[in-house]
Specification:
The complex is a heterodimer of chains A (497) and B (339).
Chain A lengths: L1 H28 L5 H34 L1 H12 L4 H8 L5 H6 L5 H13 L3 H4 L5 H25 L5 H18 L4 H18 L5 H33 L2 H28 L3 H26 L3 H33 L111 E2 L3 E2 L34 H4 L4
Antiparallel strand pairs in A: 1-2
Chain B lengths: L9 H22 L4 H13 L3 E4 L6 H12 L3 E5 L6 H5 E8 L2 E8 L6 E5 L6 H13 L1 E4 L2 E4 L5 E6 L12 H4 L4 E4 L5 H11 L16 H14 L4 H13 L9 H6 E3 L3 H17 L7 H12 L4 E2 L1 H5 L4 H11 L6
Helix pairs in contact in B: 1-2, 1-3, 2-11, 9-11, 11-12, 12-14
The chains are: A mainly alpha (497), B alpha/beta (339).
């Protein structure tokens, strides 16, 4: 039983703590088990631990019964003292459970046996012979436990997978939700944190359809915007009351900058009408700048530590909106890569309708952008897949966005997910674009016109604290010969000189 | 020595047994060089109340050994040379018409089977009819002639020999008859130093006189007391189960049969085998100074007690598998029970 305790407890503890261990692994190393695998592994561990405990209990019960058996206990003693089965014979003939039959089997030689058995018992040191050995069983079981743990580690390593972009995004959302919940001052903030957590769960849930995920994210986004707006309004009132002109100026400057960016992007996108994933990215950028300006103004007009907390909350909210927007884009990108059954090529080409004014102001139009590399059709029948499909159902959107590219042989370069430029001061793996032929940027979404063609400010857009900075491109190498060797039919080779 | 058991203490009886057994071995060793194991098994069979089958080529001193043992123990000895024309009446005895005091009557003339120790030399040379005449005497310790039963005076032991060579014209002992021997011992050729000792003793002028342990008149009673002592030795339940396991393991189709047994045996040992095992183990225990049997005592008895009770099949004979090798496997494989 003692042998079984250590491995069993190890297995059960591992099974119970697998979730926190997985979370810690995720937080520190960025690896995780998928929830179904983690649950299965946890169940297996707990079941193995329980099985070992049950087996140990059965063995302990059997040992207990054997120890209670008079003759069997005598046999144990016999083995221990190496007395040629004299003690077990004595026990057989003096068994208190069957006194009659035992007495009948005795012969005139029984007194000799009695004396010899007593003499043998005299030499028995119970403390020495039946020493409670804890160290040895634990040592043996620790070897077994080590083997089990090693096997489990290997199994876990075999099952572990690199996190998907959705996982990363969900983790970030959860972190922000924790931060919001920690610094929450109102019931709205708590509700917002809960909503964000739910959105993160939905984002990770592979069983949910993308529309559902998007709806949850948008709901969280709306709530975050409302909270930000509420905070801004209250702050604005305070600032006006204080008469801090610097603050007002700062805010005004920020807004106008945001508008400028937005309008520039809007005109471009109106032509291009690329995928909605791009639009989402563009939308984030615009409000971010405006938000930065707002914060700057507020900080100038701030007067005390309470304002710092306020700024912190604002920053959290901004970050939250950024991450939600990214997550939304992520969902759309993923959906675009794994189109649903109704996204048959050819059905939805050129069907990206223009945004209706007042409907989704940040969505771009359907005009193809001739400058977009993706618009260059592939040689062959699949060229129509590259046609834009923005604004429509994400399921039908087969536009690959950054996958588009021009090659001589019709092979499209495939970009990796979640490539983004680093913020100033942010560390991380950089995007290598030295040899890139095309680089696509997600520009801020255009503030689309609504209300009869008037330009309106999109106050709901997320606001970033820091402007995104594009990394410089590699010097153009237009004069350099292409790396690829173009296959030229022999009859035309003489013409190339 | 050899007094009634109620007059001396159990300890003294055990000590006497060991002393008598040891002295008998020593006395026989005066005239028989080597073959200590055969002598020990012969004496063991005597104290167990069984009979012994000795297998060996002629000239190894089988007759001399039995004769020496009978002289040592003060018991009567008869020898029967089994031949194909030997009749049962030649062994058992017959009614002879005699005339006395004016009238004639049939008088029973005892055959050579009426002795304490009977040596049946080359028993496999006699016809089955004659061989079977010995069966009743061996098992029942009595013979019946013309409706009259004659009791063979205890102790009674038959020591049969058979020659493993020159099998032409012989009648191998049937299994039923083989089963009546408690042991089958194989007498091998003497080693060179033993042979030199034999030559020195038998070709010189020196006479090795045997000192009898008992007066002939007291000997039967003394031997019977010692036989009773053997039966008083105690056996624990787990050891009885072990013996049952050994018998079961050697029986094809029985519980716990080993693969070798199923492959090479036609029949396994009978319950007589188990009885022989226990009795032999008891003698071994007494010789070790104990009054209870141990696993080692049983293991020591397994091969001589069971080797002639296993009936090998054709495959075993074709592959030269012996009963001894199978029994060794059984001893090795069977785990001694620890309840």
């Amino acid at each position: 039983m003692l042998c079984a305790v250590a491995p069993a407890l190890t297995a059960i503890a591992l099974g119970i703590l697998l979730q926190p261990i997985g979370d810690a692994t995720w937080a520190r190393y960025g690896y995780s088990l998928s929830p179904d695998r983690a649950n299965l592994l946890s169940l297996v561990l707990i079941a193995a631990g329980v099985a070992v405990i049950v087996a140990g209990a059965i063995m302990a019960f059997r040992a207990y019964r054997r120890a209670n058996d008079f003759v069997a206990a005598a046999a144990e003693l016999d083995d221990l003292l190496e007395c040629n089965q004299e003690i077990v014979t004595f026990a057989t003939l003096a068994n208190p459970s069957t006194p009659e039959s035992s007495r009948e089997r005795r012969t005139p030689l029984f007194p000799i046996l009695w004396r010899r058995a007593i003499a043998l018992f005299g030499g028995l040191d119970i403390r020495r012979e039946f020493k409670l050995e804890v160290g040895e069983p634990l040592k043996r079981s620790s070897i077994f436990a080590g083997v089990v743990a090693l096997a489990m580690v290997l199994a876990t390593l075999g099952l572990v997978r690199a996190p998907t972009p959705e996982n990363r995004e969900a983790a970030k959302l959860r972190t922000i939700a924790e931060e919001i919940a920690r610094t929450s001052t109102s019931a709205d903030d708590t509700a917002l944190a809960d909503n964000v957590r739910k959105a993160a769960d939905a984002l990770e849930n592979s069983k949910l359809p993308p529309e559902e995920k998007k709806a949850r994210l948008e709901e969280a986004m709306k709530q975050a915007r409302k909270a930000a707006e509420k905070r801004n309004n209250s702050q604005s009132g305070k600032n006006q009351g204080n008469g801090k002109s610097a603050s007002q100026n700062g805010k005004g400057s920020g807004n106008s900058k945001g508008q400028g960016n937005s309008s520039g992007s809007g005109s471009g996108q109106g032509k291009s009408g690329t995928g909605s994933g791009q639009n989402a990215g563009g939308n984030n950028s615009g409000p971010g700048k405006g938000g930065s300006a707002n914060n700057s103004g507020k900080n100038q007009g701030g007067n005390g530590s309470a304002k710092n907390d306020k700024n912190k909350s604002d920053q959290n909210n901004i970050e939250l909106q950024n991450e939600l927007a990214k997550a939304e884009a992520q969902v759309e990108t993923a959906n675009a890569k794994n189109p649903g059954p109704d996204s048959q090529p050819g059905n939805d080409k050129n069907q990206g309708g223009a945004n209706k004014p007042g409907d989704k102001s940040n969505q771009s139009g359907t005009q193809p952008d001739p400058n977009k590399p993706g618009d260059i059709p592939k040689p062959g029948a699949n060229g129509d897949r590259n046609l834009p499909n923005a604004g429509g159902n994400p399921k039908n959107n087969t536009d690959m966005g950054s996958n588009l590219g021009d090659t001589h042989l019709g092979e499209m370069p495939t970009s990796t997910n979640a490539q983004r430029f680093l913020k100033p001061g942010e560390k991380g793996s950089t995007v290598d674009i030295r040899d890139a032929r095309y680089v696509m940027f997600r520009l801020p979404g255009a503030p689309t016109t609504g209300n009869g063609g008037k330009t309106v400010l999109d106050t709901d857009r997320p606001k970033a604290t820091t402007a995104y900075v594009n990394a410089p491109l590699a010097p153009t190498r237009d004069d350099a010969p292409p790396d690829e060797r173009q296959l030229v039919p022999p009859r035309y080779r003489d013409m190339i000189h | 020595m050899g007094a009634a058991p109620q007059q001396i203490s159990p300890d003294q009886r055990v000590a006497d047994f060991r002393k008598i057994f040891s002295r008998a071995e020593s006395e026989v060793a005066r005239v028989i060089v080597g073959h200590r194991e055969v002598v020990r098994k012969m004496l063991t069979a005597l104290f167990c109340g069984g009979h012994i089958l000795i297998e060996g080529v002629p000239g190894l001193g089988k007759t001399l050994m039995v004769k020496a043992a009978s002289e040592t123990l003060g018991l009567s000895f008869k020898r029967i040379q089994f031949t194909p024309d030997l009749m049962p009446s030649d062994i058992i005895g017959t009614q002879v018409l005699t005339e006395a005091e004016g009238h004639r009557e049939f008088q029973f003339k005892e055959g050579p089977i009426f002795a304490h120790m009977v040596l049946g030399d080359e028993i496999n040379r006699a016809t089955p009819k004659t061989q079977s005449a010995v069966l009743e005497a061996m098992e029942e310790h009595q013979v019946t002639v013309f409706g009259t039963t004659y009791i063979l005076e205890p102790p009674y032991i038959v020591l049969a020999t058979q020659n493993p060579i020159e099998l032409e014209g012989t009648y191998p002992l049937p299994e039923a008859q083989m089963d009546r021997f408690i042991f089958k011992v194989v007498m091998g050729s003497p080693k060179p130093d033993e042979l030199r000792e034999i030559l020195n003793r038998t070709t010189g002028t020196a006479q090795n006189k045997i000192q009898p342990l008992f007066e002939p008149s007291h000997a039967p009673r003394a031997i019977e007391d010692l036989k009773a002592l053997v039966r008083e030795v105690m056996v624990a339940e787990p050891l009885e189960r072990y013996i049952i396991g050994v018998i079961g393991g050697c029986t094809p189709g029985g519980p716990g049969t080993l693969p070798e047994v199923s492959q090479y045996l036609r029949f396994g040992p009978s319950p007589r085998g188990a009885q022989a095992l226990i009795l032999c183990a008891k003698v071994n225990a007494l010789l070790a100074g104990r009054v209870s049997v141990s696993y080692d005592d049983i293991d020591d008895a397994i091969i001589p007690c069971l080797r002639h009770r296993l009936l090998l099949n054709f495959q075993a004979e074709a592959e030269s598998v012996t009963a001894e090798s199978i029994l060794e496997q059984v001893i090795k494989r069977l785990k001694k029970p620890r309840t």
